[in-house]
Design brief:
By secondary structure, this protein is mainly β. It contains 9 helices and 56 strands. Helix 1 runs antiparallel to helix 8 and helix 4 runs antiparallel to helix 7. About 12% of the residues have low confidence.
Length: 841
C-alpha cells in the first residue's frame, strides 16, 4: 500500500503537469532503494514490478534497513498532452497546439508519429486498458486511474484483475465483468480497499475517482499515512521534545503492561457477543430457496430477476451493493467453492461454474433438473443431476470441479425416489444428503462417504438438514428453523430441537428450505416457493380473463386439462406428500383423487375424459397407473418403472411417456393401450398384458417433454441436441424427417386444438406461437416464424425443461396458466450474526 501511494502520487504529479500516461502497468513501475540504496543487493540495481509482483516483493527485502522502496513511474512513450487543471483532473480533450494547449513535444516521445493519437486509435497494454481505450475513445486522467486500479488489484492479490485466453476474451472481461473483491482473495486487506479498487475499475469514467489527488488522499487515509511532508530530523529544541515523548512512551508501556496483566485475569470470561439481525433488500425471484453464504460467512450469493431472467448475484455482507454475475442467466441453486473464489450453479440443463475473478461460465456436466451441489477442497463436486422422474439422474453424483465424466456415488434403494441437496462435512470425504419423494419410511437425512459403504439415516424429516460444525444440525419443521445437537462421528442426533427463527420459507416443489449458514452467520427468507400459485385464464394478449379460486400455498404443479376443457387435474403438495387432485373449471374447488403416501404425480386425461393416468413412486421409480375419473375403483398398474406420462394419442391407442436411461439419458417411449386388460379380482393392481412399450425418440442426448398433435400424426418434443433445449416436431407413428420449431431456445410445447399452431416457452419466459401448415401429401410441414404472445409467470420458470408444461390450451383458444403469485414487495433476506448465542451452552 505504501508503494501504491507513491504511484498514485506520481500520477497526480503528472496530471498536474498536463500529462496523461496511457500505459500504466507493472512493467513501467520501478522500485529503487530509499535514499539511493538498491532494492535488490543481489542484482545491484532497480527492480521492475513483475507479473504477480513476486519478484518486487522479494527484492524489496533488501531495502528494509533504509525504509520502504521508492516507486518510480517511467516510460511515458505513449503519454499525451492534456489541459493543466488544478487538482489534476482532465475533464475534456486536450487543446490543439497553438490554441493554448501544451506543445506535443512535451508529452509525446520524439519517435511517436502524429497519427498515434488520432481518434479511434487503441494505445496501451490490453491487460490494463480502460473500456474507453478499448473502444478508441479519448483518454483522460480517469483512464490512468482505471489502469492504476488494475495494478493495485494485482499488487494486493497476486492475480490479474482481468484475464482471458485471447485478446478477444480479455477485452470481453474488461468490458463486462468485475474482479472478485480484494478482501475475498486477501482476507487481511481493509474493506475500504475494496471500495477504492472498485471505484477505480468502474466501467463508466464518471463513476471513477475523478482526480488522482482524490485517490491519493483516500489511499493515505486507508493506511494512516501522513498527509504532509516527512517530519524533519530533531535539532536541539526538538531533542527536548523527543525526551518528553520518550518519558511519555515509557509511561505508556507501563500502562500497556498493567492492562495486559488485567486481561490475563479476565480473558477466560469474555462478555458474550450480541445477536445481530439486519435485512438485505433483493429483487424478485422465482427461486427463493436459491441462496448460499460463502464458507467464510462474508459473502452471500442468491438468485434474482431484474429483466425477466434469473441470474446469480453476489454481495459482501458489509457492503451496500450487489453485482450480477455475467453468464448466469437462468441460474438456480448456487453453491460456493471452498476458497470462495468460484460458484457452482445450474442453468440450461447443465451444472456450471463461474469464477468471481471474471470469465465465461464453464459447463461441468449435464443436469436436466439440478437439485443441489457441494464442493470440497480437493476439487470434487457432488450434485444431483435430476429429479425423481429421471431416476438414474436423481442420485448423488460426483464430478471434478474442472469437468469430466460424472459418476454416481449413491443408488436408490427400495421405496426411494430421489437423493438431493448434498453437503460435504469438514473432512471433505463424508457428506449428508436428503432422501425424498419415495415412501415415508425411506425419507430423511442420510450420512454417506466417498469411500463407500451404505448410507445411514440420521434423522426422519420432510426437509433437508444442514450440518454446522462442530456439532449442530439445522432444518425447517413447518415454517420454523430448528437446531439440534449432532454427533458427526457417530451420525447421531442428540437432544431436543430448538427454534432459531420463524417463519422461514420452504419450497415443497423441489423440497428445499430457504436458509443458508456459515461461520456464525445465518441467512434466510421468510417466504419460499410454496407461498402462492394460482391457476388463471389468459387470452392471446396475456390479459387475465379468469382465475380458479384463490392462490394456493400447497405447491400446485403439473396441471392437465381434460379434452372438453371442463375439468382440471393438478398435483398438490401437503406436508411433503404429492397427490393428484381434481377440480371443475366452474367451481375451482379441488377434491383429492389419489391417496397413497408414496406420492402420486403427473396426471393425464384419457381422450374420452373418463380415465386419468398418473405416475406413482410406490414401490420405487415412477410407475404408470390408471384410475377412473369418477374416483371409483382401484388404481390399475399399466407399466412398472416407466417414467413421467406426457400425452395420450387422440385415438386412445398410445400413451407417450419419458423414461430415463443411464446410457442414453431421457428418452421418449410409447405404451400401446390396446390389448386385453388384466382382471383386478384379487384387489391388487396388476400390470397390463399384451402391451409392449417401445422407444420413439432415443439418442445419447435428452428428449424430455412431448405432446401428440390433435390428429395424432405429429409429435412435438424437446431436445438438447444443439447444446440447449429446443422444440422439434416429427411424424408419428412412422419416423421421418424432423423440424426445429423454436428459435434461440424453447421448452414446454403445446398444440392448438386445430393443429395450426404450436406453442412453446422461450428462455425469456415469453409464450411463443409458431404457425404450422401440413403439405398436401401430409408428409412435410410448412412452418411460420415464431411470434411472441406474452410474458409468462409459470411455476416451472423458463429455460430449463420441466418435462410437463405448466400451462394448457383450451378448445376455445384460452390458456390455463399455473402462475407464481408474488407479493408486491419481494421478500428480503434476513442476516443473523452470532446466531449460536440463541441456543445457549
Amino acid at each position: 500500500m505504501q508503494i501504491a501511494i507513491q504511484i498514485a502520487d506520481a500520477l497526480a504529479t503528472a496530471h498536474r503537469a498536463g500529462v496523461i500516461h496511457r500505459d500504466l502497468k507493472p512493467g513501467n513501475i520501478f522500485l529503487v532503494g530509499k535514499r539511493g540504496s538498491s532494492t535488490d543487493a543481489r542484482r545491484g540495481g532497480p527492480s521492475r514490478l513483475r507479473q504477480g509482483f513476486g519478484e518486487a516483493r522479494q527484492s524489496a527485502g533488501g531495502a528494509t534497513a533504509a525504509g520502504p522502496p521508492v516507486a518510480k513511474l517511467l516510460d511515458f512513450g505513449l503519454a499525451k498532452a492534456g489541459q493543466q487543471i488544478v487538482g489534476a483532473g482532465f475533464l475534456g480533450a486536450p487543446k490543439p497546439y497553438g490554441e493554448g494547449g501544451s506543445r506535443p513535444g512535451a508529452s509525446l516521445a520524439p519517435t511517436t508519429p502524429p497519427a498515434l493519437t488520432g481518434q479511434g486509435t487503441i494505445l496501451g497494454t490490453f491487460q490494463y486498458m480502460a473500456p474507453e481505450q478499448l473502444e478508441g475513445e479519448e483518454a483522460d486522467a480517469r483512464t490512468d486511474i482505471f489502469a492504476f486500479g488494475a495494478v493495485l488489484y494485482e499488487m494486493l492479490t497476486g492475480r490479474k484483475a482481468f484475464e482471458g485466453k485471447s485478446h478477444a476474451s480479455l477485452i470481453g472481461a474488461i468490458m463486462h465483468t468485475e474482479p472478485a473483491p480484494v478482501s475475498s482473495v486477501q482476507p487481511l486487506a481493509p474493506r475500504s480497499v475494496d471500495r477504492i479498487v472498485r471505484k477505480c475499475l468502474a466501467k463508466d469514467p464518471d463513476d471513477r475517482w475523478q482526480t488522482a489527488r482524490d485517490l491519493l488522499d483516500e489511499l493515505r487515509w486507508t493506511v494512516g499515512a501522513p498527509q504532509g511532508a516527512p517530519m524533519p530530523l530533531a535539532g536541539p529544541r526538538q531533542g527536548r521534545l523527543v525526551g518528553a515523548r520518550l518519558a511519555w512512551g515509557v509511561a505508556a508501556i507501563a500502562l500497556v503492561v498493567a492492562a495486559a496483566a488485567v486481561w490475563q485475569q479476565v480473558r477466560d470470561t469474555p462478555s458474550p457477543r450480541p445477536i445481530t439481525r439486519f435485512e438485505i433488500a433483493v429483487p424478485p425471484t422465482d427461486s427463493p430457496t436459491s441462496l448460499a453464504l460463502s464458507p467464510d460467512g462474508r459473502q452471500l450469493a442468491y438468485v434474482a430477476s431484474t429483466d425477466g431472467r434469473s441470474r446469480v448475484w453476489v454481495r459482501l455482507l458489509d457492503d451496500t451493493d450487489a453485482r450480477a454475475l455475467a453468464g448466469t442467466e437462468g441460474a438456480s441453486f448456487p453453491f460456493w467453492a471452498p476458497d470462495a473464489r468460484a460458484i457452482g450453479f445450474f442453468a440450461e440443463g447443465k451444472l456450471k461454474r463461474v469464477d468471481l475473478a471474471g470469465g465465461a461460465p464453464q459447463v461441468l456436466a449435464d443436469a436436466p433438473n439440478g437439485r443441489g451441489g457441494t464442493w470440497n477442497p480437493e476439487g470434487v463436486i457432488l450434485f444431483t443431476p435430476g429429479n425423481a422422474v429421471s431416476a438414474p439422474n436423481s442420485v448423488i453424483t460426483r464430478v471434478s470441479a474442472a469437468g469430466g465424466t460424472p459418476i454416481a456415488v449413491t443408488h436408490l434403494g427400495p421405496g426411494e425416489g430421489s437423493h438431493r441437496w448434498p453437503q460435504f462435512l469438514p473432512d471433505g470425504r463424508r457428506f449428508m444428503f436428503f432422501s425424498t419423494v419415495g415412501r415415508p419410511d425411506t425419507q430423511g437425512v442420510y450420512l454417506a462417504s466417498l469411500d463407500g459403504g451404505e448410507p445411514i439415516r440420521v434423522l426422519v424429516t420432510e426437509t433437508p438438514g444442514v450440518f454446522v460444525p462442530p456439532d449442530r444440525l439445522l432444518l425447517v419443521r413447518g415454517d420454523a428453523l430448528m437446531a439440534a445437537r449432532f454427533d458427526a462421528a457417530q451420525g447421531m442426533v442428540a437432544g431436543e430441537l430448538m427454534q432459531l427463527a420463524q417463519p422461514v420459507g420452504r419450497d415443497d416443489g423441489v423440497l428445499a428450505s430457504a436458509f443458508s449458514v456459515a461461520r456464525g452467520t445465518l441467512a434466510y427468507r421468510t417466504t419460499g416457493g410454496s407461498q402462492g400459485r394460482q391457476l388463471v385464464w389468459m387470452d392471446r394478449t396475456g390479459k387475465m380473463v379468469g382465475s380458479m379460486g384463490s392462490p394456493d400455498t400447497n405447491q400446485l404443479a403439473q396441471l392437465a386439462l381434460d379434452p372438453a376443457g371442463q375439468r382440471i387435474a393438478v398435483v398438490r403438495t401437503i406436508l411433503g406428500n404429492f397427490d393428484v387432485w381434481l377440480m371443475d373449471t366452474s367451481r375451482g374447488i379441488p377434491a383429492r383423487f389419489t391417496f397413497d403416501p408414496a406420492g402420486d404425480r403427473y396426471p393425464l386425461w384419457s381422450p374420452d375424459g373418463r380415465r386419468v393416468v398418473f405416475g406413482s413412486l410406490r414401490g420405487g421409480p415412477v410407475s404408470l397407473y390408471e384410475k377412473s375419473a369418477s374416483g371409483a375403483g382401484d388404481e390399475r398398474l399399466l407399466a412398472a418403472d416407466a417414467g413421467m406420462p406426457l400425452s395420450w394419442s387422440p385415438d386412445g391407442r398410445f400413451l407417450l411417456y419419458q423414461r430415463a436411461d443411464p446410457k442414453t439419458g431421457i428418452d421418449l417411449w410409447v405404451l400401446p393401450m390396446t390389448g386385453e386388460r388384466p382382471s383386478t379380482g384379487s384387489g391388487r393392481p396388476e400390470p397390463a398384458e399384451g402391451r409392449k412399450p417401445h422407444a420413439v425418440v432415443q439418442t445419447a442426448l435428452d428428449q424430455p417433454g412431448g405432446e401428440f398433435s390433435l390428429d395424432g400424426r405429429w409429435l412435438a418434443y424437446e431436445s438438447n441436441e444443439s447444446g440447449r433445449f429446443e422444440v422439434y416436431v416429427q411424424p408419428f407413428p412412422e419416423a421421418g424427417g424432423k423440424w426445429q420449431m423454436s428459435v434461440a431456445g424453447g421448452t414446454q410445447p403445446r398444440w392448438r386444438h386445430d393443429g395450426k399452431e404450436l406453442y412453446y416457452v422461450a428462455p425469456d419466459a415469453r409464450l411463443m406461437a409458431v404457425p404450422v401448415a401440413v403439405s398436401p401429401d401430409g408428409k412435410t410441414l410448412d412452418l411460420g416464424v415464431p411470434a411472441p404472445l406474452f410474458r409468462t409467470r409459470l411455476a416451472s420458470g423458463a429455460g430449463v425443461s420441466s418435462g410437463r408444461p405448466e400451462y394448457a390450451v383450451a378448445p376455445d383458444g384460452r390458456f390455463l396458466m399455473n402462475t407464481v403469485v408474488e407479493d408486491t414487495a419481494p421478500s428480503p433476506i434476513t442476516i443473523v450474526l452470532n446466531w449460536e448465542a440463541g441456543l445457549g451452552p
